[in-house]
Amino acid sequence: MKKWIALAAISVAVAGCGGSSSSSSNNGGGDTPSTPEPNTPQSELLSSSRGGHVWHDYCQGKSDSAELPVDPRTLVQNGVNQGRNVVFNIDWQSCQSNDAQRPQTCGQYRDLYEKGKLVAQGFGEPGTSHMFSQDTHVSASFTDPATLADFGEGSMFTIPADAYNNLWQTWTGYVLSPSIPQRPENYDELIAQRYGTTLGEDRNPYPLPGEDPNQTNGGSGQLPIAFTQLREPDGTWTGQIGVKLCSFCHDGQITSDSSSINEVFGGAGMIGDFTVAFRDFAAAAQNPAFGLLSGLLTVSPLRGVGAIDQFQIGFLGFNGGTFEEYTNDKIIFSQSIGVIKSPPWWNMGHRVQKFHGAILPMDSSRIDMAAYTPLFFAQTGEVSEMEEWLDEASYAFQIWAESLKAPVYPGDIDTALAEQGAILFHNKNLWAPSLNNPVPEPETPGNGSCASCHGVHSEYFAKDPNFLSDPRLEGIAANLVNAEIVQSDPVYADAQRSLLEPDGSAIPAVANVPMLNCGLGDFSSTENNYPVLLAPPLYGTWAAAPYLHNGSVPNVWQLLGDESERPDIWKRKSTPAPEGLEGRVVMGFDTNFERAYDQEKMGWKYDELDCVQDAAQTLPLLACNPIDESLPTLQDLLGEVYKQVGLLWNLPIDELHSIPLTDQQIENRKVYNTNVYSQGNEGHQFTNVLTDVERRAIIEYLKTL
To answer: In angstroms, rounded to a whole number, what is the distance separating the alpha carbons of residues 115 and 144?
Structure first.
């Protein structure tokens, strides 16, 4: 009874703040907040699918012949849900190239799932995909001229096991220590820590020094999930190690003393640093291909984030080989998108369009294979053959990725508080007149709640026709929001606009880029060409810190509050080094839930840095001004250049002289400086009207998703 008294009290408070009514005359919600009755089952109010896809859930326990239900995302068309509390203003677009493979039964779905799992994971399995190499098992080596004859067929992005075993010799802090250096006993764990990847539960072997992989079933070493040993079609191990490049950005790790959770596939990642790995690979294997992609041209200036939507590079490396594409002025004269974080894959099954800005249709699967497609394939092979592989591999991968679920929160949850948060999340009108929200109200606000943008995440509210026209739309987010309302760092949204013609139309070169065969998303057709951001579903939010599209805000407490609460320069906590190796090895971000996670504020713990006192990490004058933080730095001046010539952002001016990187340089890559181009931590200030009590309740609710 006490629980329902509390719920009744919070519903009265919500109603007093405007409830589901909006201050705008075009409000679509009802006048009375949807408040649960006292006999409402807790499972309805706090239910969560944790993301994934309806087909994956439906086929559990079903026969292969069972026919699949409708994909709910395909219902988001032609003004569906208009006039309701939740706003959908973009449509689902099916991609024709996927139609031939689209499953009709659970059996067909399972076949595609397994094929996609091989593409995505495939640890040590024949036919798995790897970095810019499709699924080839052939390697080309700059130290063996005979293999270079295979250019176009062999991979330039592999490293021999012998070189992998000697990577420790490139670690400056380790080899320069007073003690005689030798290969560390816990080498595999140190590799995973240094490069920001995870030692998974599944076997992923490589041969240790002196081992023959074909006499030891691949070897007795364990590769992190970002790498795989290549095998020939007959199962023969090659001793060559390829890179599962997608894993560096999208996979993560969370360990817990009370849970079996470990590797987190398809999360927001935020722990990987392939630049460090590739610098080591370039040195140990004498491979300039790795050096190029981590030196003169990089997409990752920091650990955990990068310019993974840098389409200028795509115009160069993945075009159809036409003169028009190579002379596309947008390759040079367009704005760099700078730093962004990867959206969690476990939300893909509830998204209508891709990326932070509705750049492509969600069904545009070819782009998902960008990291595995051979560079300059149009010049070294048949475009039609590559497109055939792209369609077969990418759609299967999409099926697998959309099936992923967010991990269950491993800590304690205050159920009564979470229920209050569920009501606030779906009912609290942030633009109620009494709140005097200084942020402009959206043109179509719905009921002005969190759910109006991010979608319904509760079975109870999904059944309410004031929220959704069809309960099957639960969890779907399809609200494209004017960037002036979000007010986060403007670089990403502005840069995507810079890739278009002045009238907002696509540049002619786009027509021949195989990755963009399904057309562009709705970012390209906004009124007056205004920049936009796409509100995502919020499943697994607790496991996707830090926040905003660029990962600039450490926790949800700060995200929901005033910008002044957010740190200026900060560094996430690192894993403690093994005993005896303190100061000799670089450790990754600490992913232990009990030790490193702030359960009250919902985010990973961090240290705030001072421009002067922490000068070795903050790089005064380059990235901050020690005299007056309001005065410009070199980065401010460079930012003006990056706005005009995007690819210049990819030149790491403070790291070019070091291959491999020094330990201090690697540590500096963990520092998030919000003064640097594209890394601002402003925005999302419309939630600053929430009280501290309301913030706590919403955070508790988000733990259940």
So the answer is: 33
